[in-house]
Design a protein that fits this description.
By secondary structure, this protein is α+β, with helices and mostly antiparallel strands. Helices cover 27% and strands 27% of the residues. It is built from 14 helices and 22 strands. α1 packs parallel to α7 and α3 packs across α10. The protein is globular. This is Peptidase M14 domain-containing protein. Belongs to the peptidase M14 family. One of its GO terms (molecular function) is zinc ion binding.
Length: 508
C-alpha cells in the first residue's frame, strides 16, 4: 500500500504539488513509455464499444445495463464489475468517459481497465465495486465532436440537466451513490497561445477534485489529498503530471484551477454524496494525427484510474471524511460568488516545453492563482418558492436533481425576498478572468407574498439531509453569479419587472 501524507492545508498541498513540478524537468516533449492501450491508437466508436461490451457477457461479476439514450437514440451503457472475493460493498467507484465526444483517452482507458478486469489481469480489491460509463456522449464520439447532437456542451449541463445524457448520468449517480466519481477529459496540449511563443504545455495529464464552495467545507482539501498522493507514482511511471490548471501561458496570463460552479460533472455529481474528480490528458491537436500518441495518454490515465479503483485505504479515508462533512449543517450564509486568487506576492516558476529543444523550462508565472476566495454571499433563506406560472419547468428540474418539493393545494402567505436581474454579462471579463454568463443581481427586502395554488415550495429544514439542502441551494439560489438565468430558457421566465421567478422564503 502506498504511504500517504497527512491531509494538509490547501496552501501546504499547493507547495507540495508545485515542488513536484520541478522533479519532472528532464522529461522531454516526445518522451513516451511503452504503450499499453489495446486500441493501439484506434479510437473506439459507439458500434465498436458495443462489440467490446459483448465480450463481457458471461464474465463472472460483470453486468452491462442501459441507463439512457443519447439525443440520436444510441444507448448509454454502464458496466458494473464486482470483486471476485465476495464481501459487503463498501466503495463504489464511478468512472465517466467521453462527455466531450472528441476527447478519447479517458474512454479508451476505461475500456482498457474493464478489459483487464474481465481477463483477470487486474483484480478489484474486496469491497470495491466499479461502475463505468465509458461513453457518456456517443453521438459526439461518432462525429468526433465535443458537443452532443443537440449542440450542447454536456459538461456545462449539470445544473440545467437539459440533455438526456446528463439526466442519465445524474439518475445513475443518485441511485449508485459512489464514494468517488472520476470524469475523464482531454485538453489541447499544443494550443496556439503557447505555440506562438515556441512552447508546448508541459503536463501530459492533470487531476483535480471538486471545488464548489456550496459543497461542505473540507471537500476541496480532501480532493487535493488525492491529487498530491499521485505525484510520486506518476513520476515513477515517467508521466508529466500536475494538478489540473487552466489559463494562458506565463508570465502575464492567469493560471488557476478550473470552474468553481456546480454545472460540471466533477462538482454537480458531488452533490450526490461522493467526491468528484476531473482528469485531463493532453492532445496535440495540431499534429497530423492527434491520436498517434493515444496509447501514451491511455497509459497515463491507467495509472490514475487504477489508483482510484485499488487504493482501498484512501477510499476508506474518503468515505469516513465525507460522512462527517455531509452531516454538517448549512452555514448561515450562502456563497454566491467565488474566484481563484493569490494572497501572497511573488512569481511562481511554471514549467513549459521549449519546442525547439524539446526540453522543459521554467517561466515565472505572475498570476498563478490557486486559492479559493469568497467574493459574495447571501443570507441563508428558510426555503425557496416558485410561483405557479413557472412551476412545471421547475418541478421537472427539481425532480431531476432529486430535490423534494411541496406543490401548494391552497394559497399560502410567506415573507420572501425577491431578486432583480439587473443584467447578464455575456462577454468574457479580461480584467478578472471570469467566464461570460455572469448574473448581476440586486436583492429586494423581504415582503409579504401570497403564493397561488400550484406554486412550489422547498422548505430547507424539511429536506431529508444536509446534502440534499446543499443540492437545493445549488439549483434554486437566484443570487449566484452563475445561476440558471444565464441560460435563455430560464431567462425567458423573467418578465418586464426583471424579477427572478424564484423567491427566497425567509419565514412562513
Amino acid at each position: 500500500m502506498l504511504a500517504r501524507p497527512a491531509l494538509r492545508s490547501p496552501a501546504a498541498q499547493r507547495r507540495g504539488i508545485l515542488a513536484a513540478l520541478g522533479s519532472f524537468l528532464l522529461i522531454a516533449w516526445a518522451a513516451a513509455p511503452a504503450a499499453t492501450a489495446r486500441a493501439e491508437g484506434r479510437v473506439t466508436t459507439s458500434a465498436a464499444m458495443e462489440e467490446r461490451l459483448a465480450t463481457f457477457a458471461g464474465v463472472p461479476g460483470f453486468a452491462v445495463e442501459t441507463i439512457g439514450e443519447s439525443v440520436e437514440g444510441i444507448p448509454i451503457r454502464a458496466v458494473v464489475a464486482i470483486p471476485r472475493a465476495r464481501m459487503a460493498v463498501r466503495h463504489r467507484v464511478l468512472l465517466v468517459g467521453a462527455q466531450h465526444g472528441d476527447e478519447h483517452a479517458g474512454k479508451e482507458a476505461i475500456l482498457n481497465l474493464l478489459g483487464d478486469l474481465a481477463a483477470g489481469d487486474l483484480l478489484l480489491p474486496p469491497g470495491v465495486e466499479l461502475h463505468a460509463i465509458p461513453m457518456a456522449n456517443p453521438d459526439g464520439v461518432d462525429a468526433d465532436r465535443r458537443r452532443n447532437a443537440a449542440g450542447f456542451d454536456l459538461n456545462r449541463d449539470h445544473a440545467l440537466l437539459s440533455q438526456p445524457e446528463t439526466r442519465a448520468l445524474h439518475a445513475y449517480a443518485a441511485r449508485v451513490r459512489p464514494t468517488v466519481v472520476v470524469d475523464c477529459h482531454e485538453f489541447t496540449r499544443d494550443s496556439g497561445s503557447y505555440a506562438d511563443r515556441g512552447w508546448g504545455e508541459w503536463p501530459l495529464i492533470m487531476l483535480d477534485g471538486a471545488n464548489s464552495p456550496l459543497l461542505p467545507g473540507g471537500v476541496l482539501e480532501l480532493g487535493l489529498g488525492w491529487v498530491e498522493a499521485a505525484v510520486e507514482p506518476m513520476a515513477e511511471a515517467g508521466f508529466a503530471y500536475q494538478r489540473y490548471l487552466v489559463g494562458g501561458p506565463p508570465p502575464e496570463n492567469e493560471i488557476r484551477p478550473s470552474t468553481l460552479d456546480a454545472d460540471d460533472a466533477r462538482n454537480g455529481l458531488s452533490f450526490f454524496g461522493g467526491l468528484g474528480f476531473i482528469i485531463e490528458s493532453g492532445v496535440k491537436r495540431s499534429a497530423g494525427d492527434p491520436q498517434a500518441d493515444l496509447p501514451e495518454r491511455v497509459a497515463a490515465y491507467r495509472v490514475l484510474l487504477d489508483r482510484f479503483v485499488t487504493d482501498t485505504e484512501r477510499l476508506e479515508e474518503t468515505r469516513a471524511t465525507l460522512a462527517r462533512l455531509h452531516a454538517e449543517p448549512l452555514g448561515e450564509t450562502i456563497v454566491t460568488n467565488a474566484l481563484w486568487a493569490r494572497t501572497e506576492p511573488g512569481a511562481v516558476p511554471y514549467p513549459v516545453v521549449d519546442l525547439a529543444s524539446g526540453e522543459t523550462v521554467r517561466v515565472p508565472a505572475l498570476r498563478f492563482a490557486t486559492e479559493r476566495v469568497i467574493k459574495g454571499q447571501a443570507t441563508k433563506p428558510a426555503g425557496y418558492a416558485v410561483p405557479a406560472a413557472h412551476a412545471e419547468a421547475w418541478a421537472d428540474l427539481l425532480a431531476a436533481h432529486a430535490v423534494p418539493f411541496e406543490r401548494l393545494e391552497e394559497p399560502r402567505s410567506v415573507s420572501a425576498e425577491a431578486t432583480e436581474l439587473v443584467r447578464v454579462e455575456e462577454a468574457y471579463d479580461p480584467v478578472h478572468d471570469r467566464y461570460g454568463g455572469r448574473q448581476v443581481v440586486a436583492g429586494i427586502p423581504a415582503a409579504e407574498v401570497t403564493l397561488d395554488v400550484g406554486s412550489l415550495l422547498v422548505d430547507l429544514a424539511a429536506l431529508p439531509d444536509p446534502l440534499t439542502r446543499r443540492r437545493a441551494v445549488a439549483v434554486l439560489e437566484p443570487r449566484q453569479l452563475y445561476g440558471l438565468s444565464q441560460w435563455p430558457r430560464w431567462r425567458a421566465m423573467i418578465g418586464d419587472d426583471r424579477l427572478s421567478p424564484v423567491l427566497r422564503v425567509m419565514a412562513e
